[in-house]
Specification:
Blueprint lengths: L4 E6 L3 H12 L4 E5 L22 H12 L5 E5 L2 E5 L4 E5 L4 E9 L3 E3 L7 H4 L4 E2 L2 H4 L8 E4 L4 H8 L6 E4 L12 E3 L3 E5 L2 E4 L4 E3 L2 E4 L3 E3 L3 H4 L4 E4 L2 E5 L12 E3 L9 H21 L2
Parallel strand pairs: 1-2, 1-6, 2-3, 6-19, 8-15, 9-10, 9-15, 10-11
Antiparallel strand pairs: 4-5, 5-6, 7-16, 12-13, 13-14, 17-18
Helix pairs in contact: 1-2, 1-7
Length: about 290
């Protein structure tokens, strides 16, 4: 059976667009389906991406999509892949009832951050509230950073000291490791706002930013539905286990970007590019 596409890329953020660029330049018939929900969509700028200082995720992705329109074998669609069925060719079901077939599948997204349910925190996420110091630490250098939660506080303090010595741990009564020379506030947090932490007892604390542990979890069931081997880490659960070139435990299924583990945009671009290379080589080797 002739498939509609040689490659279906699920997700159109950094990893997916990077993969589609490689595949399109190799003249692989590629469909990219993007739900428009990149995990970094709320960030005001991409931190630490070479040549893209102060570029927002939306700007980067718009530029990437524009670049792909120049490649005649790449098609971009806004939508959601709700399921994938293996077979002689993979059959993918899109929201709305449409189906497409593809010889190879590349999953490049489908993860979300588990931002703690603290009033006001989600509004600050990606700017004044962050998880990755390598992405946002420079922007908050020498500022006062509150570490939300006692879990792993010693390790987080040691890491954040590369950017600032003005740290406070908001332990909310939970036990912490020995933290010499660091203020530990035991009061439960009621809410956060720009520049401010409010406590349940009515007190307030002025801070510039909040460091948060927000482990990633799957936003859809594609990895589980395809029966892929997964791996867990302190940064999240349900990541697809993939080799350097994106190959997973299932034949002709590849994964990159957030689908294989948390990382920054540079990492996503790199893993997407490598996965596309691996995928292309399997097409060349097919009988």
């Amino acid at each position: 059976m002739d498939a509609d596409f040689e490659a279906l890329v699920v997700g159109g953020a950094a990893a997916g667009l990077s993969a589609a660029l490689v595949l399109g330049r190799a003249r692989v018939r590629t469909l990219v389906v993007d739900a428009g929900e990149p995990s970094n969509r709320s960030a005001t700028a991409i931190g630490g991406l070479l040549g893209q200082d102060r570029t927002s995720p939306a700007q980067l992705y718009a530029a990437g999509r524009a670049q792909l329109t120049e490649l005649p074998t790449v098609e971009l669609r806004d939508g959601v892949v709700t399921g994938v069925e293996p077979g002689q060719a993979f059959r993918a079901l899109l929201a709305g009832g449409e189906t497409v077939t593809a010889e190879r599948i590349l999953i490049t997204g489908g993860m979300r951050y588990g931002v703690p349910d603290v009033p006001g925190l989600s509004a600050l996420w990606g700017d004044r509230a962050f998880m990755c110091p390598y992405c946002h630490g420079w922007e908050h250098r020498d500022q006062k950073i509150a570490i939300l939660g006692a879990a792993g506080a010693a390790e987080r303090v040691a890491l954040l000291r590369s950017w600032t010595s003005d740290l406070v741990v908001l332990a909310a009564g939970e036990p912490t490791d020995d933290l010499p020379d660091v203020l530990v506030d035991e009061r439960p947090v009621a809410s956060v706002a720009p520049g401010l932490v409010r406590f349940a007892d009515g007190g307030e604390l002025e801070v510039d930013a909040v460091h948060v542990v927000a482990p990633m979890t799957p936003r859809d069931g594609l990895v589980a539905g395809l029966g892929l081997e997964t791996t867990d880490s302190p940064q999240g659960t349900g990541f697809a286990l993939a080799d350097r070139f994106g190959a997973t435990s299932a034949p002709n299924v590849f994964a990159a970007g957030d689908a294989t583990g948390p990382g920054n945009v540079a990492t996503a671009i790199a893993t997407g590019s490598l996965a596309a290379t691996g995928l292309h080589r399997t097409l060349l080797a097919a009988p």
